[in-house]
Amino acid sequence: MATTLPARQTPHATGRAGSAEPVHRADVAVDAASGMLTGVDLAVRTAGLTKRFRSGQVAVDGIDLEVPRGSVYGFLGPNGSGKTTTIRMLLGLVGPTDGRAWLLGEPMPDAAARVLPRVGVLVEGPAFQPYLSGAANLARLDAADATADPRTSRRRTGDALERVGLAAAARKPYRQYSLGMKQRLGLAAALLRPRDLLVLDEPTNGLDPQGTREVRHLVRELADAGTTVLVSSHLLTEIEQVCSHIGIMSRGRLLAQGERSVLTDARPARVVVTTTVADADRAAAVLGSLGLVDVVRDGAVLEAALGTPPETVSAALVGAGVPLLGLEVRRPSLEQLFVTLTGEGFDVAR
Amino acid sequence: MSLADAAVPTAAMPSGSATHAAAPTRVRGAWGRLLRSELRLVFGRRRNIALLVGLACVPLLLGTVLFVTRDSALGGQGPGFISRVTENGLFLVVAALFMCLPFLLPLTTGIASGDAIAGEAQAGTLRYLLAVPVSRARLLGIKALATLAYVACAVLAIAVVAFVVGAVMFGVGDVTLLSGTTVPVADGVLRIAGVAAYVALSLTGLVAVGLFLSTLTEVPVGAMAGTVVVAIVSAVLDTLPQLAVIHPGLLTHHWLDFAEFLRLEVGWGVLGQGLAVQAAWVAVFGALAWSRFTTADVTS
Ligand SMILES: Nc1ncnc2c1ncn2[C@@H]1O[C@H](COP(=O)(O)OP(=O)(O)O)[C@@H](O)[C@H]1O
Ligand SMILES: [Mg+2]
């Protein structure tokens, strides 16, 4: 899937410093009349987007989001890092203190009436009329959509309910739904009609592992059909696997964004060698001679930053007569990336 | 059945960067569709139905009391409209509206209008309506219309039940006006309908106040209570002679002018003045509600 995306080989740190740098890229069109970046090939773009609440809290601090069309963009960050506030600004629910935002190439919130019918959303959990059934709630949202065809309303609400596995509970009042069912109804609302972009804020909240897997599957299915998906989570690993792109938020700042593989490859992987205690010293010497740094020894297990291909390491060890009981390459996790970027653990909320 | 293996095919969409779909076009009759949905929501809600039933009980109770006591020493006592009910059932409509006007109708208006925006904000459904998208001005307009419809329905419920109860218990005949002149029953019914219409229109200013308060908070009960308090404070201020200067502009000052319909020569000028004051309140608080709601951050 990544091959269909505009190449972006270097993960770039963004934020205040990044936004000042001139952008000359083919995938961002420049409006000839205004000379402004319109970002036609980015499904979501923001420039210096900032929100300072009246309380004085800067919830979002000058972020430059770039979500390529066709991507699955994982918008990750701990609780309170500003993900929901960013999404609210994208949708025109909250007015930015500074900066601008575009959805599907059009400025928000000015183009809301044109753009939002093409955008399915789930913001900060599902919310519906408690006394209406799931089906009646979807019908109400559909009735609110001035561009939705009333003749197909019944079929579309039925299809959406079916798709999230709620067909059997369609006539039940919403207040009798379990947390997982509510979340599913929220997804059904986002799928009421074909969308070009889905913005899903914490769609796996309240779901059990099976439900989480189903959401991942649904996201992948939609992405395969060409829908761009912006999906946020405060759990790094939960949706990481389906994402082609990742943006990492912390304390209102977008610390890094880019293709997931590029982001995680930016830090060297580590190699873990298991030998015998007697041969550990010799193995350490071999690793040193290969130029590997940061060698850590723990009994018979050695660990080092992987600066050469792993097969070179195994060949050298075997060549030196070191009994090689095990060799493992550990790719850096997003969690480690986050710790590197922020100097703190992921689970910190403000 | 699961998210994963639902049998429904993925919605057909061109893939990748080919999804530069044209902007969706508006379907005709979209306004009416949303308004119907909103009316279904308001009139389908159990609390709102119970409130209407409660209001409809007022003329029933009042009629029963007057019927039971009509031959006792207590008969014929009370304010003008009430003492006439036993002579002519049509007056039960006026008497019931008169009794509901100081508190029950403002309460009904407060509940309906205070809930309009704040209720959606509290439930979290406001953000989803706006993201559909529904423009904020349109949503406010729809909410105002549905609230007005509900308040009108409340007045109508009182009037219709009073008419039926009055006719059954006391009979309907030619109407003796406040001046003592008698007019034919058809004329009398028209005048009574005028009373009900004026009472309903007298509540429009309060609807606007309630809508404005509803845009200020995510707690509907707060907006409801605030609206009722506004009506009560207005009524209290109206009793202070020291404030006579501001009396004509008060929200509730002209509410009892419906009595004009019961004079031989209906004082259209007086009624017009009352409606003009309501229009002014609607204009001011409608504008406040609009400016607040179209600019406020929706963080609920
Ligand atoms: N309406 C508000 N008023 C003041 N501060 C807010 C408001 N909404 C959110 N915040 C603050 O902004 C920060 C970001 O919140 P949010 O965007 O919800 O984060 P996330 O979705 O990443 O958990 C938090 O510190 C939160 O307390
Ligand atoms: Mg959030």
Structural class of chain B: mainly alpha
What is the quaternary state of this protein? Answer: heterodimer
CATH class of the largest domain in chain A: Alpha Beta
How many discrete domains of chain A?
2
State the low-pLDDT regions of chain B, or none. Answer: 1-20
Give the biggest beta sheet of chain B: 2 strands, antiparallel
Order of strands, main sheet of chain B, comes to 1-2
Distance between the termini of chain B: 33 Å
Provide the CATH topology of the largest domain in chain A.
Rossmann fold
Helix amount of chain A: 25-40%
| H-E string of chain A | HEEEEHEEHEHHHEHEHEEHEHEEHEH
How many strands of chain A?
Answer: 15
Average of per-residue pLDDT values of chain A: 85
Structural class of chain A: alpha/beta
Helix content of chain B: 55-70%
Radius of gyration of chain B: 24 Å
Q: How does the overall form of chain A come out from the CA principal axes? A: elongated
Write the H/E string of chain B, N to C. Answer: HHHHHHHEEHHHH
Quickly describe the structure.
The complex is a heterodimer of chains A (350) and B (300). Helix content of chain A is 30%, strand content 23%.
Could you explain how this protein is built, in words?
The complex is a heterodimer of chains A (350) and B (300). Chain A is an alpha/beta fold and 350 residues long. Chain A has 2 domains: 263 residues, Rossmann fold; 64 residues, Alpha-Beta Plaits. In chain A, 30% of the residues lie in helices and 23% in strands. Chain A is built from 12 helices and 15 strands. Chain B is mostly helical and 300 residues long. Chain B has one domain. Chain B has 11 helices and 2 strands, in the order αααααααββαααα. In chain B, helix 4 crosses helix 7 and helix 9 packs across helix 10. Chain B starts with 29 loop residues before the first helix and ends in a 7-residue tail after the last helix. In chain B, 43% of the residues are buried. The N terminus of chain B is likely disordered. At the A-B interface, helix 3, helix 4, helix 5, helix 6 and helix 7 of A face helix 1 and helix 6 of B. The structure holds adenosine-5'-diphosphate and magnesium ion (MG). The site of magnesium ion (MG) has 5 residues of chain A, from helix 2.
